[in-house]
């Protein structure tokens, strides 16, 4: 057998192994195997499209679009290439680009009912966006929805048996009762939901974009990563590590909502603890605390279903008040995504960011929310298609410039719930175990004890939850691809 035939044959074997890894939800392993197949035979569109799908599963939509584009370049008649690219564009909210790809799928497969259905849904989504853009009120003329709400005027019906706030003070007893109601799939009265969210808004508005946290000697502090609407796993964290209090403080590092279908329960619980005792819990903004993500990944639909349209607008407003970064004892920098496309960024530059807006598509605020570490030095394009990838040298320089010891970030699912990179100078922590009910990963949180502030990582497994699937409230169209 000549070398070329041998390479083609070996590539096919690798593809089959990759397919098995994919079926077992081992997407990183699948990507590695598809990559080896592509290195042996880069003229097979299937390999590129399959690797694109694996990237999509890891939310690496930028890489997914690149691979799918390569698949259609290799074989312009390969419908699955357009399909994969359309799905990745859709996941990024690029509906118009997705529409073009699904039109191409329909042209190549005119009798495929699935292609026709997706094209119809995509068309509907694009028309809806155009309509919303047409009727949108310019930012300068927009009034705060919070200012129009008087929760005290909302009557609580006598038959309501759920958690109640007496007066203005949110107590631990109320929060415990509310969590118990949530656990039993009951919602709290909208009067109390408004009270929590409006109090939270006032509190967050007063904070700087970068919050300094002081931890006294012999006291501890816990950092959690993404929770993503996995309320029952949040309860498990509190079971394992204690409820938030001034003696047992937490920082939740963004992405409280979306994907998981108990996002409202998560966000109201975290907000209620913050209202109860501001120094018991700190909250950072993640890339999913934004209108564009909430529209696609379920939070908007969930809030509309469980509460009302007004709450959709109110949460969007409050998310714009969340701080972007925290520093623990002047040594540990905690941020949702990562570092920057330029050197020399100082903590004072982060403090100076005007964060009261939807996240921009470039600049410091965008990078804080979206960036990821990479194993090689320097900087590279983001596999997500937003932000950038940064190497260990970038981390080291940033820490030196700001007299810091460690970067803690979240934003990426990890098999063990955490990963230590960049010569121990960067830790990723992710607190949503068995993410989306399919990734099989552990969750983790980090406990720091003052004064040495060494990270002590605790991992945990997923716990059962009621039979409500992830993405149950997500954009109809997107659910087709999950």
Automatic annotation (TrEMBL):
Major subcellular location class: cytoplasm
UniProt TPR repeat ranges: 11-44, 45-78, 79-112
Molecular function as annotated in GO: metal ion binding; protein serine/threonine phosphatase activity
Entry EC number(s): 3.1.3.16
Locations listed in the record: Cytoplasm; Endoplasmic reticulum membrane; Nucleus membrane; Nucleus speckle
Transmembrane region(s): none
Its membrane topology: Multi-pass membrane protein
Cofactor requirement: Mn(2+)
SMART domains: PP2Ac, TPR
Record Pfam families: Metallophos (PF00149), PPP5 (PF08321), TPR_1 (PF00515), TPR_8 (PF13181)
Protein's UniProt name: Serine/threonine-protein phosphatase 5
Gene source species: Acer negundo
